[in-house]
Amino acid sequence: MRIESMWIRSCRSFKVDDADLPAEARERLSAIRRFDGLRAAGCAERAALREVGVSRRTMHRWKAALAARVQRMLERQGLRLSVSTVGRILSRAIADGAVPPASLCEGRAKPKRPRKFNGWARRRKYGDKAERPGQLVQIDHMTVSRDGQTIKEFRAICPVSRFMVARAFSRATAFNAARFPAEVAEALPVPLESVQVDGGSEFMAGFEDACRNLGVALRILPPRRPQWNGCVERANRTARIEFWNLLDCDLTVEAVSERLLKHEFFYNYLRPHSAIDYRSPNDCLVDCEAAQPQCHMS
Predict the structure, then answer these.
(1) How many CA atoms lie within 13 Å of 236's alpha carbon, on the beta-carbon side?
(2) How many domains in the chain?
(3) Which of 60, 75, 105 is the last residue of a domain?
(4) Vertex 31, ends 25 and 34: CA angle to 5°?
(5) 86 with 210, same domain?
(6) Are residues 66 and 127 in the same domain?
(7) What is the chain's alpha carbon radius of gyration, rounded to the nearest angstrom?
(8) What is the largest CA-CA distance in the chain?
(9) Residue 212: in which H helix or E strand, if any?
(10) DSSP 2
(11) What is the rounded CA–CA span in Å between residue 204 and residue 202?
(12) Are 74 and 86 a contacting pair, CB within 8 Å?
């Protein structure tokens, strides 16, 4: 028998209620949601699994268990289907628009606006690489939450020297994002030639205008290419381990900014980095200046 369609009263009818789950099950469901969210945002599978902290085999086992739960819920309503059939029906329903994804039901994701290249920004092409400090500086932002407080951090990394600039804001708005290029240009010891960002809405409009006013070329990553922003993505992870996990103050812009500047100084002038032969970013800049024009990214 081939099932062409299935009547569903409401997508909320099949929502997993976290309050009814044991603590271990809630943790697994949270990991699945984080993994799916990262994948939907364009993160590679290996990077998403590394961020969640589970193996590929474990993630697929947890997802299979969740699908089995959905299967059992359908059986209670008189529908006896295999787990694979449930998966195919749901995939087809989501693709046809009959059932929205769970993240949309919960309001956790919004359709991205397509990027229009009619101004200063240009699409970054495959093979484009930074050859000197200040060229193709990678910019990204991340969210840090704790005890009901949230901070948005914008971070820039020079892929040649690993020199880092980070600033804390209360929200990741286009207005705050537009302030960041000037901060980077002022803090970077070398001229800021160009920056690359993902296709997030915060990097449109005001951010693009700010880059134009500074004369800084703006390059936009293609969809599903987070690995092209690998230096700043790795720096974000390092920041979570070495800064945010050790932070002992309230998550307010004033309190965090003071400590973030101290961390930035340590990161740029004292901390050795394996990617640049265990030198500090400042030492790398000095060596690059001494070696011009031979200095380039390995």
Answers:
(1) 21
(2) 2
(3) 105
(4) 140
(5) no
(6) no
(7) 23
(8) 75
(9) helix 206-214
(10) -
(11) 6
(12) yes
